Amino acid sequence: MDGQSTVSGSRVFSVDLQPIFVINGKIPSFRDLSSGVSGADVQQLQEFLVSKRYLGTTFTRTRFDNATNTAVSKWAKDAGFSYDGTLPRWRVIYVPDLPKVLVPLESLRVGAQISQGQELLQGPVADPVFSFRVLPENVSKITPGLKVVIDTSGEQWSGRVSRLENTAGDVSETVAILEPEQGQASICGGECSRAVKLGDKTVLPGIIELIPEQTGVQIPTAAVRSDANNKTFVFISDGVRREITLKVSDQGKSIVEGINVGDRVLLGDASEEQTP
Q: Which domain of life is it from (predicted)?
């Protein structure tokens, strides 16, 4: 268990030289399973065996029948453990919603003594907290609602800035805390464990969208005017006033709607023209 996702059927550790496996399931392992035993716990074992193609379609659901016994025997041979017709309850740990990241608790280490019912593994109980450090000169630019795109080796997650917090310590830093975008329940959805290591900090590259992408016609900001009614407009080269919608301005350029590409706009005192 190295922080990667654990899939159903994975060997997670050994006790007294005997391998222990995790299988997808909601019912804890509470008894040995052998021929003739019936119940929902048998069914979840059968579902695992079917998923790994050890068990076909001909078997008695919820009952440990001959087909199930043969399937367990095949699995045991491939997985490297002895099987005498009884699957001990300690051989398997059932964990719901696999695959997910599982890591050992601090009490689980080489040579440690364990007892029945002891908790040994932990998995994520909630979505991780996504944040990034904000440099002092950028604090005024990072505002709630800004979109942040996180790159996870081929796929992208998106969130938005929720708030800024100052960290405690000798040197205070500003940290931006992210939240899911509107209409989303999670930043990473069911894929959190694929890229985020449990119990540790994971560094992922991201892009902050300081200015949302806009479409329109780009013109010099100096060509944009406003009247007493706060309506924005430009003068076209023939002297015609054209009302526009100003979408965004940055570094002397503006994106507007209301004129066409190729229209010649007047700058400053109307003595200069420029074609967008």
A: Bacteria
The candidate with the shortest Cα–Cα distance to 99, out of 184, 172, 1, is 1
What's the rounded Cα separation, in Å, for the pair 181 and 149? 11
Distance (Å, rounded) from C-alpha 34 to C-alpha 45?
12
Token code pair at residue 55 = 């068990």
Q: Where are the alpha helices (DSSP H) in 17-118?
A: 40-51, 66-79
Q: Which amino acid is at 268?
A: G
Residue 155 has pLDDT above 90, yes or no: no
Distances from the Cα of 43 to the Cα of 46, 62, 67, 75, 240, angstroms: 5, 4, 13, 16, 79
d(CA 54, CA 32): 20
Mean of the per-residue pLDDT values for the chain? Answer: 86
Kindly give the pairing relationship between strand 241-243 and strand 232-235: antiparallel
Section 188-198 average pLDDT: 71
Say if CB 49 and CB 68 are below 8 A apart: yes
Reference 95, options 126, 119, 66, 67; nearest CA is 119
**CATH classification code of 217-274:** 2.40.420.20
DSSP SS3 for 116: coil
More confident residue, 263 or 1: 263
Instruction: Dihedral sign for Cα 109, 110, 114, 118, please.
Output: positive
Distance CA 123, CA 6 (A): 10
The structural domains of the chain, with segments of one domain joined by +, span 5-122, 131-209, 217-274
- Does residue 3 have a pLDDT over 60? no
Across 12-16, 20-24, 104-108, least confident range: 104-108
Amino acid identity, position 30: F
What is the residue type of 101?
V
pLDDT at 210: 77
